[in-house]
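Researcher: Next entry: ATPase (Tepidibacillus decaturensis).
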Amino acid sequence: MSTIKNYYAGGNTSVGFYSLYDEALKGLDRLYIFKGGPGTGKSSFMRTIGMTMADKGYNIQFLHCSSDNNSLDGVIIPELKLGFVDGTAPHIVDPKFPGVIDEIINLGEFWDDKKLKENGKEIIKLTQDISANFKRAYEQFAEAKSIHDEWEDIYLAEMNFDKANEVTETLIEKIFTREITKEENPTTKRIFFGAATPQGAVNFIDNITEDKEKRYIVKGRPGSGKSTMMKKIGKRAEELGLSVEYFPCGFDPNSLDMVIIPTLSVAVLDGTAPHVIDATRDNDEIVDMFALCINPNVEVEKEKELHNIESRYKIKMTIGTNYIKEAKRLHDLLERYYVAAMDFERINAKREEILDEVLQYAEEKAQYKSEVIF
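Model: Predicted structure:
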């Protein structure tokens, strides 16, 4: 049975659009890079190939678009070390080894230039308005981050750092209690499990961790040491020669929200809002940093201040999300001009051509593997 894992390789964050596409695509032996305007069929092209290969038993990774909940920005087939990616703005991907590893698929070859030029003014205006809305969204998220820093400062002032270090070391001992065999070629990877989207905060934590034997779900408040704990766990795994998957926060990419150690089948994750995760599986374990490391009286003494900060933060996040939602509405209007100008019969033919290439590539890989074994 094949599995489908869902991720984001880019996000709408407090520091603007943040790309992890280089991380998501590293190690591939073949990469198809799509170029072309909105509505040219890039997402549908990739999804169809991804689902076709999943039906044939290959595990698939979908890279979702943070600015369109129904769109894909990439597909990876790990077993084949093969991928597809939307190489257009804001996550521009260009060939590093053209003709060797990377191949450009220019869907602009299949549109009618005349039809697009007839609507040139409208297309330019919509494109500019979309950019302006993203700019405003990022400004709101940046202001929300400043408010969030205020929030963190209140809890940091009441933090028992010695106790936090003790809790972290205890957890590290639990995770690495068994004898560790160093991996031959350990790797690290950074990717997002969620993003700020037109529909609000979305995450794929349950999907990504569904095959992990053990989940440590870290609860707490802003500034209660969750990210620091995960960074230390990841560092220890690397020191022991293990591969590590790091998941930065989709709001603040400098902070960590999850770390996975695949060899040990262990995930340590932040289970607080906006990605609330509770202990729903037999082997889930809660680590409450607030209860263990912070003076609980702070929430009584600072109740009004904390309420004020939380309210201001939520308002900024809501306004920012609304700008992203408006950008999506405008993007849908922009897509209509391109859809009307596309020759989808030729695109479908191109997709079948590429799918045949992928199937041939998979067959060659399987044959090579068989020859190596025997």
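Model: Note for the record: The chain has eleven helices and 16 strands.
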